[in-house]
Write a structure and sequence with these properties.
There is one protein chain. The protein is α+β, with helices and mostly antiparallel strands. Helices cover about 25% and strands about 40% of the residues. The protein has 2 domains: about 55 residues; about 90 residues, no CATH class. It has an 8-stranded mixed sheet, with no helix packed on it.
């Protein structure tokens, strides 16, 4: 059997250097793993929020009535009105554009606003929100208030609602 004689001074210094090297490599690996985990988390968070957005297809040939507590029409507010939205599909004989007919009647039965909007679509979401407009450009938005359960609406025919 052969026994090697090792100098104690070299061994202590080498062990100390090796320990420092291993600790330095471990901390670099730990930092790299933490950054990698963070990037993966951010990627999944972003993709989840991107694909979880609610989308709806335009409704055609439907009529929707809503009792709206406050309706803002081009900056002028009306209270307790009945909004009727009627989506009209093109028949391709007379007209080939989508239209939405909007009628707003106040409590007394007086017609406050009546128009037929052309080249727009009617969207209804599961939250109760109704939108009339083109994709990414809404002219009419009616949404449900979270606390009271009533509906509130806005109409901006020229400038749109963002």
């Amino acid at each position: 059997m052969v026994i090697f004689k090792i100098k104690t001074m070299d061994t202590k210094e080498q062990l100390k250097k090796n320990a420092e090297f291993i600790l330095a490599k471990f901390s670099e690996k730990a930092i790299f793993m933490k950054i990698r985990t963070l990037l993966i988390f951010l990627f999944f968070n972003f993709t989840t929020s991107l694909f979880s957005q609610e989308t709806a297809k335009p409704m055609t040939n439907t009529e929707i009535e809503r009792n709206v507590s406050i309706m803002d029409i081009e900056g002028k507010e009306y209270e307790n009105v009945k909004v009727t939205l009627k989506s009209i599909s093109p028949d391709y004989f007379i007209s080939n554009i989508y239209r939405v007919k909007v009628t707003i009647i106040d409590v007394n039965g007086k017609v406050v606003w009546k128009k037929t909007l052309k080249n727009v679509y009617l969207y209804v979401f599961s939250s109760g929100q109704i939108q009339v407009g083109k994709p990414n450009f809404d002219k009419i938005v009616i949404y449900k208030n979270d606390y009271s359960g009533t509906f509130t609406g806005k109409i901006r025919e020229k400038q749109g609602i963002y």
